[in-house]
Automatic annotation (TrEMBL):
GO molecular function annotation: acetylglutamate kinase activity; ATP binding
InterPro entries (alphabetical): AceGlu_kinase-like_sf (IPR036393), AcgluKinase_fam (IPR004662), ArgB (IPR037528), Asp/Glu/Uridylate_kinase (IPR001048)
Gene that this polypeptide is encoded by: argB
Originating species: Candidatus Enterococcus testudinis
NCBIfam families: argB
Protein name: Acetylglutamate kinase
PANTHER family attached to this UniProt entry: N-ACETYLGLUTAMATE SYNTHASE, N-ACETYLGLUTAMATE SYNTHASE, MITOCHONDRIAL
Catalytic activity, EC: 2.7.2.8
Any Gene Ontology biological process: L-arginine biosynthetic process via ornithine
Length: 252
């Protein structure tokens, strides 16, 4: 059975349309497993503004001091995840809200505490736990948080989590849903992009800001065995489809 991983952004999670759920139902009916990773940056920033806390973004990543980490956990686990899980359940799908503390689901490591605070990267995914759920047609809804071996919670970019989850499950396809229909170059949306073209898109600054973590994470996922990564605003079309890891790229 093939696995499809979908990352939905904080804003995209407001737009879980009947069409979205219809596609998920069709995938499950065809025997495919579905896993969701959700973001929530929009809601986190909104809450921080209400609390008069500064929001600092570096290279698409939220600088996370202890107070920002607490707000992030509160919003992701107390607001965004329940909202998304409820929408799936109303659509007749068996959704299970999960976080890093569920059977050591996501073990993380600090990237650079001096520059970013408690921002992490994925060290390990409990793949067996996810497979036990998806085999029974449950849809895991995963928050982008990790816990270090020492028990420190970490804020992890949701695209990074989605790509690592997809890699651990050897997914056939990873959708990175965002609020735009793909990568734009010279005022045109790109359809298909080969893995070998991605470095040039970054170097030429076609890919910047919030799109940068998506593309870097997509590279990791493809190198780790995910067949295709789609950056799009809805799962009914592939948007910018990134595919193919050539041997030179692997050896490099």
């Amino acid at each position: 059975m093939e696995t499809i991983v979908i990352k939905i952004g904080g804003v995209a999670s407001d737009n879980l349309t009947p069409e979205f759920f219809q596609v998920v139902h069709e995938w499950q009916a065809a025997g495919k497993k579905v896993v969701i990773v959700h973001g929530g940056g929009h809601y986190i920033s909104e809450m921080m503004e209400k609390m008069a806390l500064p929001v600092t973004i570096k290279d698409g990543l939220r600088v996370t001091d202890p107070q920002t980490l607490e707000v992030t956990r509160m919003v992701l686990l107390g607001q965004v995840q329940p909202m998304i899980t409820t929408r799936f359940q109303k659509a007749g799908l068996q959704a299970v809200g999960l976080n890093a503390g569920c059977d050591q689901l996501i073990t993380g490591a600090v990237i650079d505490e001096d520059q970013l605070g408690f921002v992490g990267q994925v060290a390990h995914i409990n793949t067996v736990f996810l497979q036990l759920l998806t085999q029974k047609q449950h849809i895991p809804i995963i928050a982008p948080l990790g816990i270090t071996e020492a028990g420190q919670w970490l804020n992890i970019n949701a695209d990074e989590v989605a790509c690592q989850v997809a890699a651990s499950l050897q997914a056939e396809k990873l959708f990175l849903l965002t609020d735009v229909p793909g990568i734009k170059k010279d005022n045109e949306w790109l359809g298909k992009v080969a893995f070998s073209e991605m470095a040039a898109l970054i170097e030429d600054r076609v890919v910047t800001g919030g799109m940068l973590p998506k593309v870097l994470s997509a590279q990791k996922a493809l190198l780790a065995g995910v067949s295709t990564v789609c950056i799009t605003d809805q799962i009914s079309h592939d948007g910018t489809e990134i595919f193919g890891v050539d041997q030179l790229a692997v050896m490099a």
